[in-house]
Amino acid sequence: MARWDGTDTAGPRWEERAADDDARWFRTLLHLGFFLLLGSSLTRFLMRHTGEGIAPWVVSLAAVLAVLYVAEPAVAGDRVRQSAWLGACSAVWVALVFLAPSFAWCSIPLFYLGLRRLRPPAAACYIGLLTVVSVTAQLRLAGRLEFDILLGPPAVAAICVAVFVRMDRQSARQRELIADLVRTRRELAATERREGTLAERQRLSMEIHDTLAQGLSSQQMLLQAADRTWRTDPDTAHRHVRAATAIAEHNLTEARRFVHDLAPADLASGGGLDKALRTLARRESTDGLAVRCHVEGVPARRLPDRVQSALLRIAQGALANVREHADARTAALTLTYLDDQVVLDVADDGRGFDPAALRDGDGDGMRGHGLPAIRTRTRQLGGTLTVESAPGEGTVLSAAVPLDAAAPAGD
């Protein structure tokens, strides 16, 4: 039975890897943008202020800022060290901006660093402080009030914050969806395991009922008959004991094959379903019950092993019901090959029963596992089960399996 044991998490892991790749690309672009802005700002300053005395200071502070920025991985995982590192970067940047206002553009990567490292209230204050510094430095350089300088940096800061918040929320939702998917898959795997366990238990109960329990019941009846006739008719008693011994030997073979999940012993001996049903009829024929087997028609193609096995188990289960409940003298197995289906009929001349007493569904109202197991096997093959009976008039059980539904996947 193919089922997901919960170890197959390729989907969620792929989603997680995709999210990690997106974050990695974003960080790479952010770092690249920072150094491009830092380099362009420094180049612009040197082209216009080469001979000024502040040039060495600007170059030194730009180098310090670059070194601090590169040192970010060294403070990862420690909130205090991260805060100190961010404060140092910001202080150097503020000094650069007041010396050379063109370095104000480097505030954009610093916005993202603050949003990633600080809590929302502290991040808002941090971004506001950087924005005020940028506006002040630009106004001081311009020497007059200009609305583009007054409104530009706040607009850029607002856009950066909006983009970051949007990305952060999307990332959080994606993580929640991945967690939900993993949890759902685990729950589905647990459900499939439970259903598989229940199905396997049902299969085992049907197998035990149709093989071991049936054989033990036959042995019990034969040994009881031998005990009753031991003194009056020793030959008949010995015949009953020999028959019980043969059934025990067959049961032992069935048990071994059952443990190894192989085909029924009658099918494993070769000859197909026809021969297996005839062997079953001979074995089930005792002094009190005569079982005959008829095969009509010729199969259009070889039946799959699972279909042959299921039909043989249905016949075994039906004969077990006949022997235990019907008090019949004769029973007949009829296997009919039609153009579009194969039909197995099991008829007896026993005392019968009222089919209306059966509950709807799986026949839970019947004693034991016989009819429910037969009905389940038939449904698993895509077939239908019909039971015709009346008190005192015997019973006819008919299991019809469509050949198309029963076709093997690989035959």
Question: Could you explain how this protein is built, in words?
Answer:
The protein is an alpha+beta fold and 411 residues long. The protein has twelve helices and five strands. The protein has two domains: 10-185, no CATH class; 269-411, Histidine kinase-like ATPase, C-terminal domain (Heat Shock Protein 90, 2-Layer Sandwich), CATH 3.30.565. The protein has a five-stranded mixed beta sheet with strand order 1-2-3-5-4.
SSE layout and pairings?
Blueprint: H1 10-48, H2 55-70, H3 79-99, H4 107-117, H5 120-142, H6 147-229, H7 234-259, H8 265-268, H9 272-284, E1 290-296, H10 305-326, E2 330-337, E3 341-348, H11 370-380, E4 384-389, E5 395-402, H12 403-406
Parallel strand pairs: 1-2
Antiparallel strand pairs: 2-3, 3-5, 4-5
Helix pairs in contact: 1-2, 1-4, 1-6, 2-3, 3-4, 3-5, 4-5, 4-6, 5-6, 6-7, 6-10, 9-10, 10-11
Average residue-wise pLDDT: 78
Biggest pleated sheet = 5 strands, mixed
**Spatial shape:** rod-shaped
- State the total count of DSSP E strands: 5
What would you report as the Rg, rounded to the nearest angstrom? 42 Å
Keywords: 4Fe-4S, Cytoplasm, Iron, Iron-sulfur, Kinase, Membrane, Metal-binding, Transferase, Transmembrane, Transmembrane helix, Two-component regulatory system
Subcellular location: Cytoplasm
Organism: Streptomyces filamentosus
InterPro entries: HATPase_C_sf (IPR036890), HATPase_dom (IPR003594), His_kinase_dom (IPR005467), Sensor_HK_TwoCompSys (IPR050482), Sig_transdc_His_kin-like_C (IPR004358), Sig_transdc_His_kin_sub3_dim/P (IPR011712), Sig_transdc_His_kinase_ChrS (IPR017205)
